[in-house]
Q: What sequence folds into this?
């Protein structure tokens, strides 16, 4: 692959109207695929902190586990980067890899008898049934105004203050959307669900976060 490949990809991405971050990531990926080691270092510089923050949040706040999972994710990135055919989609690809690393870790942990009860408890209040209820509420316009208000006033500190009080599914969607600032479509790709389901989960998560923050004295 010659040097013109990077220019062609840059032109394709710019033609899609993608933002500067997506163009930056695409060019770095192509440079990695062309064998530039410095480009991979730049990718790590840009994405390691958001990746680690996501993994710490969804794993329950353990920095050591986040370190291990982030290292595992970057190893998978090194192996998979040469075959990434859509360089502009690096961000959702990266978070999907990280999510898979976490899922594999939890699956191994939950196989142990002493953690089976905790595994069941972690899933309480989430899943298709809760999504369906939230879908109906969002379609009916219930609390939509409150969601918009919450968007306006939420700070990163407040989101993080209430995260540990939420079930894993709701915690994850808030981290991706509010803390990592990923668009709905990218959140949907990472989570493997339709965009409408992401909206429903966000609605439910915001409502639960609101209650958690009130209990902690925010907005009281």
A:
């Amino acid at each position: 692959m010659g040097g013109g490949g990077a220019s062609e990809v840059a032109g394709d991405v710019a033609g899609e109207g993608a933002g500067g971050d997506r163009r930056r990531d695409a060019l770095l990926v192509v440079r990695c695929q062309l064998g530039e080691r410095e480009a991979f270092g730049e990718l790590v510089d840009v994405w390691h902190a958001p990746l680690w923050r996501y993994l710490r949040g969804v794993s329950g706040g353990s920095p050591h586990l986040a370190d291990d999972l982030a290292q595992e994710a970057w190893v998978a990135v090194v192996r998979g980067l040469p075959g990434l055919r859509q360089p502009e989609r690096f961000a959702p690809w990266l978070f999907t890899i990280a999510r898979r690393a976490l899922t594999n870790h939890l699956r191994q942990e939950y196989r142990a008898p002493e953690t089976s009860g905790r595994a069941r408890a972690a899933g309480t209040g989430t899943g298709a049934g809760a999504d369906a209820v939230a879908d109906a509420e969002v379609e009916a316009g219930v609390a939509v105004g409150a969601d918009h208000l919450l968007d306006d006033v939420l700070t990163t500190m407040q989101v993080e203050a209430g995260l540990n009080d939420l079930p894993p599914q709701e915690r994850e969607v808030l981290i991706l959307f509010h803390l990592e600032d990923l668009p709905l479509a990218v959140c949907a790709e990472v989570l493997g669900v339709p965009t409408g389901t992401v909206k429903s989960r966000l609605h439910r998560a915001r409502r639960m976060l609101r209650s958690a923050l009130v209990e902690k004295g925010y907005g009281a």
Residues 67 and 209 are 26 Å apart (CA to CA). Confidence is low (pLDDT under 50) at residues 1-18, 115-126, 128-153. DSSP finds twelve helices and no strands in the chain. The two ends are 60 Å apart (CA to CA).
